[in-house]
């Protein structure tokens, strides 16, 4: 299964002409895998659904992230709150924003990386 997931990730990265942040990429491959949905409790006690690599493109197309926030890629959500990585950036930061405000206000930094977002 790991090879299938790796191929799916590489395919998305090629379409985006960008690489996923290293820590998010690792978490996607090793933890989320092809689970659907993959619910994670984050540091503030909320639960976020993170998309597997086979659902990522569809969720981003549904919310037209490429139009309203082209520098970002949505990786999960908690109701109307989306969680994003920044494309073409060397950092591993996770950002969040109300999906209704996409493109109209700046993203908020939610965590330094996917691992610090997760409640341990």
UniProtKB/TrEMBL annotation:
Coiled coil stretches, renumbered: none
Source organism superkingdom? Bacteria
What InterPro entries does this protein's entry cite?
Knr4/Smi1-like_dom, Knr4/Smi1-like_sf
Task: Name all Knr4/Smi1-like domain ranges.
Answer: 8-97
Checking Pfam families in the record gives:
SMI1_KNR4
Query: What is this protein's name?
Result: Knr4/Smi1-like domain-containing protein
The major lineage groups are: Bacteria, Pseudomonadati, Pseudomonadota, Gammaproteobacteria, Vibrionales
């Amino acid at each position: 299964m790991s090879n299938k997931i790796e191929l799916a990730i590489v395919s998305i990265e090629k379409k985006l002409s960008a690489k996923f942040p290293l820590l998010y990429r690792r978490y996607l491959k090793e933890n989320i895998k092809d689970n659907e949905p993959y619910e994670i409790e984050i540091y503030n006690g909320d639960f976020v659904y993170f998309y597997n690599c086979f659902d990522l493109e569809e969720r981003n197309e549904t919310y037209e992230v490429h139009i309203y926030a082209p520098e970002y890629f949505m990786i999960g959500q908690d109701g109307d709150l989306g969680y994003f990585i920044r494309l073409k950036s060397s950092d591993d930061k996770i950002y969040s924003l109300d999906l209704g405000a996409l493109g109209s206000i700046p993203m908020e930094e939610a965590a330094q990386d996917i691992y610090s977002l997760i409640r341990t």
